[in-house]
């Protein structure tokens, strides 16, 4: 691989979705649509799809379905030589029922005992994994899987940090997953675990609610902009942070959202917002969401795509790209970002028309 590689680490699963907006009881028995999904894998696929060097690290069982999973990643251009194949564990699953109007999406996880959740950190060749890396990305989903996966995440961050690699953490709190240390409540276990990781993170990705629930950082009651206030408090608590990114979603219904984002640049104490029109934030209106899963990962990938570029420090452009990528991700079925860099850049520049491209 060439230099300037982004490494991501996490679980990749099979996603089984009901057709259209059918409920589980309507679709089963019957046919479910299978795709592969996983937050860190989605980020890697997006980065490779946009022309970058991306390497995905995980563990998968040694069977034909996992082979198909690896091939799917390679089709995007993702480097997969650090995906361990093991006789232990399984390929995780999750089931999706797509909501509509006032009925929300439903997700059922079936991922206990997944290979990546039980494979120890010592099984990975960290020197090889980070040999060409300039950026490492992980989400809070990975340490939520098991105590072993939490140790894996902590080891990976230490290895990346010791090499001076930029580290982004997308909090992605999933209350259904943080259950490996009873009697601690999921939010308590997540807080205890993620607070140990935060001193190694350089780019924080997460919402104001995440900062409050997991890091005990709250906006002042009279803050002019609560999101900016929280970003500044994060930077004060964790001085190694260089950027704080937040995707901002206002849900109108299950298939209608307003979408925007914020990126705080710590060195200059500058906060960027997008999209902006005539000096004001004007969120993208997405009234007919095709699939909202993966939009946050597209946003994260957009931030990384620009900031990890050679010599790039254009935070404003990084945010515009990320918001546009996340917006377009809502238009494509599946978690992976089947949206080109040219399409993202066109939306960045204001081309939101639905005219047929001829």
UniProtKB/TrEMBL annotation:
Q: Name one Pfam family in it.
A: PfkB
| Record InterPro entries | Carb_kinase_PfkB-like, PfkB_dom, Ribokinase-like
Which key words are in the record?
Kinase, Transferase
Could you tell me which residue ranges the Carbohydrate kinase PfkB domain spans? 6-334
What GO molecular function annotations does the UniProt record carry, in alphabetical order? kinase activity
Keyword Transferase in the entry? The reply is: yes
Record keywords: Transferase included? Answer: yes
Question: Can you tell which superkingdom this protein's organism belongs to?
Answer: Bacteria
Instruction: Give the family, as the similarity comment puts it.
Output: Belongs to the carbohydrate kinase PfkB family.
Descriptive protein name: 2-dehydro-3-deoxygluconokinase
């Amino acid at each position: 691989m060439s230099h300037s590689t982004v490494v991501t680490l996490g679980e990749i699963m099979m996603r089984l979705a009901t057709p259209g907006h059918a409920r589980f009881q309507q679709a089963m028995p019957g046919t479910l649509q299978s795709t592969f999904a996983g937050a860190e894998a989605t980020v890697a696929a997006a980065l490779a799809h946009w022309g970058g060097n991306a390497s995905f690290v995980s563990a998968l069982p040694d069977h034909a379905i996992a082979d198909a999973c690896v091939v799917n990643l390679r089709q995007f251009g993702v480097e997969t030589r650090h995906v361990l194949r093991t006789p232990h564990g399984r390929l995780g699953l999750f089931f999706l029922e797509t909501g509509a109007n006032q009925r929300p999406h439903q997700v059922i996880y079936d991922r206990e005992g997944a290979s990546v959740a039980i494979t120890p950190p010592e099984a990975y060749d960290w020197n090889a994994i980070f040999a060409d890396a300039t950026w490492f990305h992980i989400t809070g989903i990975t340490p939520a899987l098991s105590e072993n996966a939490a140790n894996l995440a902590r080891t990976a961050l230490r290895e990346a940090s010791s090499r001076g690699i930029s580290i982004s953490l997308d909090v992605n709190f999933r209350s259904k997953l943080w259950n490996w240390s009873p009697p601690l409540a999921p939010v308590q276990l997540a807080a205890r675990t993620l607070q140990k990781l935060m001193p190694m993170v350089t780019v924080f990705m997460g919402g104001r609610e995440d900062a409050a629930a997991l890091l005990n950082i709250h906006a002042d009651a009279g803050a002019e902009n609560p999101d900016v206030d929280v970003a500044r408090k994060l930077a004060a608590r964790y001085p190694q942070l260089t950027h704080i990114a937040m995707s901002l979603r206002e849900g109108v219904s299950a298939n209608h959202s307003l979408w925007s984002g914020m990126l705080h640049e710590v060195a200059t104490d500058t906060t960027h917002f997008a999209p902006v029109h005539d000096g004001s934030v004007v969120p993208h209106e997405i009234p007919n969401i095709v699939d909202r899963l993966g939009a946050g990962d597209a946003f994260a990938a957009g931030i990384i795509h620009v900031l990890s570029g050679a010599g790039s420090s254009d935070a404003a452009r990084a945010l515009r790209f990320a918001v546009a990528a996340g917006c377009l991700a809502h238009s494509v079925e599946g978690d992976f970002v089947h949206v080109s860099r040219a399409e993202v850049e066109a939306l960045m520049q204001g081309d939101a028309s639905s005219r047929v491209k001829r």
